[in-house]
Amino acid sequence: MTKQQANWSPYDNNGGSCVAIAGADYCVIAADTRMSTGYNILTREYSKICKLADKCVMASSGFQADVKALQKQLAARHLIYQHQHNKQMNCPAMAQLLSNTLYYKRFFPYYSFNVLGGLDNEGKGCVFTYDAVGSYEKVGYSSQGSGSTLIMPFLDNQLKSPSPLLLPVQDAVTPLVEAEAVNLVKTVFASASERDIYTGDKLEIVVVTADGIRREYMELRKD
Amino acid sequence: MFRNQYDTDVTTWSPAGRLFQVEYAMEAVKQGSAAIGLRSRTHIVLGCVNKANSELSSHQKKIFKVDDHIGVAIAGLTADGRVLSRYMRNECINYSFTYESPLPVGRLVVQLADKAQVCTQRSWKRPYGVGLLVAGLDESGAHLYYNCPSGNYFEYQAFAIGSRSQAAKTYLERRFENFTDASRDDLVKDALMAIRETLQGETLESSVCTIAVVGVGEPFHILDQGSVQQMIDAFEIVGEQEGPAAEPDAAAGQDASAEPEPEQGAAAGEGVAPMDI
């Protein structure tokens, strides 16, 4: 008598890739805008990027229904924080909140692979990368999603972030200028779109600086 | 003297059909420092008089942002008011989360009123000792409500509560017919004039009052001291009595760049939430 298997899954993977790169005084967060299911495309114009606070932006790939629910949760909790503390949450605080929120559902996880990017209290760029249950780390750059296996090695090659295990402790921040980082992101997505079927259509780039948040788009391969 | 027989519990009626504990709670509202509200077709302005315990302490916060489209001014037991504000904020957040749209003001005041009523019918509770002027904007327009400790609520064109509020009410009664079509700035001016009435001779300056505005295209926010002082000067609504004490006070109040009260000066940080100031 074999164990009965589930004939229905509560999860689906809508594909897509996300990238974030931190700079000395900026942070670039980017994601493609393709939403798929199986071998089909649901839409070519879905944003995976969400502004959580004035200087804090999150990009998530995975199951977009869970991503949407997660974004709403964080937005509500951020509003409560603002009521209690009379200010917006800074990026490291939001990073911890996201981690706790994900672990809260450790036994029925949000199928959401996140990168959080923004400026910390001193105005330096920061990127935090997560797994589905909230394990996170502050890094200089990261990618998540279906194209991450193609993107990450290329970023490693170009950005050479020092290991956190080295002493003396070195900064996890990339010595790139904002324009160079944006170009790198465009290059990286163009490459990923070539081989990853779930990545393509359009690239949405969000740049967080002291002056505010800027948005940019670039066309990608539609096949 | 006579009514003391039936005033021990909120659940005890008097022979005349009154609940004295509830009425005593309404008295608490009258003891608090004044709060006023007035509305036009598109804007609502809330104002309050800042009362500090002593010269050394800061004044109590009496105006709270509840959501982008709702704010509240309180009079009475400010601790009760703070707790109710927290409740209102939660209700707004939960409604937005579920329905992805702002909570209609009329619904919120009913919920608030029902919450207050519960405390008038439980022997182990006491009524909230705070009156709330709820200002909100929703699809049906601009609204100003007054919520009593009794659990009643009323909608107003303009109203004043707290100590010496009758003076403000008299002023508002004279002027209310102009409010519906008044401009935002005129509405603020009327609010300042009404506050001046409650001060009864004291100089009106931005350090003794707080003004907040919500309107079409303008989320609820408390005006900063500098802007308020500018408006007071522009409208020339300084009180007649100008004692020697008023001079250094006026100088401090008019200095827009210096922020004498740290709890209002949270603007220095980069991430100032729209919640404050």
Automatic annotation (TrEMBL), chain A:
Keywords: Cytoplasm, Nucleus, Proteasome. It is found in: Cytoplasm; Nucleus. Its main location: cytoplasm. The keyword tRNA processing does not apply. Pfam families: Proteasome. It comes from the Eukaryota. PROSITE patterns: PROTEASOME_BETA_1, PROTEASOME_BETA_2. Component of the proteasome, a multicatalytic proteinase complex which is characterized by its ability to cleave peptides with Arg, Phe, Tyr, Leu, and Glu adjacent to the leaving group at neutral or slightly basic pH. The proteasome has an ATP-dependent proteolytic activity. Non-catalytic component of the proteasome, a multicatalytic proteinase complex which is characterized by its ability to cleave peptides with Arg, Phe, Tyr, Leu, and Glu adjacent to the leaving group at neutral or slightly basic pH. The proteasome has an ATP-dependent proteolytic activity. Component of the 20S core complex of the 26S proteasome. The 26S proteasome is composed of a core protease (CP), known as the 20S proteasome, capped at one or both ends by the 19S regulatory particle (RP/PA700). The 20S proteasome core is composed of 28 subunits that are arranged in four stacked rings, resulting in a barrel-shaped structure. The two end rings are each formed by seven alpha subunits, and the two central rings are each formed by seven beta subunits. The catalytic chamber with the active sites is on the inside of the barrel. This is Proteasome subunit beta. It comes from Hibiscus syriacus (Rose of Sharon).
UniProtKB/TrEMBL annotation, chain B:
One of its GO terms (biological process) is ubiquitin-dependent protein catabolic process. Residues 6-28 form the Proteasome alpha-type subunits domain. Its main location: cytoplasm. Keywords: Cytoplasm, Nucleus, Proteasome. GO terms for cellular component: cytoplasm; nucleus; proteasome core complex, alpha-subunit complex. The keyword Nucleus applies. It comes from the Eukaryota. Residues 241-277 are annotated as: Disordered. The keyword Transmembrane helix does not apply. It is found in: Cytoplasm; Nucleus. InterPro entries: Ntn_hydrolases_N (IPR029055), Proteasome_alpha (IPR050115), Proteasome_alpha-type (IPR023332), Proteasome_alpha1 (IPR035144), Proteasome_asu_N (IPR000426), Proteasome_sua/b (IPR001353). The 20S proteasome core is composed of 28 subunits that are arranged in four stacked rings, resulting in a barrel-shaped structure. The two end rings are each formed by seven alpha subunits, and the two central rings are each formed by seven beta subunits. The proteasome is a multicatalytic proteinase complex which is characterized by its ability to cleave peptides with Arg, Phe, Tyr, Leu, and Glu adjacent to the leaving group at neutral or slightly basic pH. Belongs to the peptidase T1A family. This is Proteasome subunit alpha type. It comes from Hibiscus syriacus.
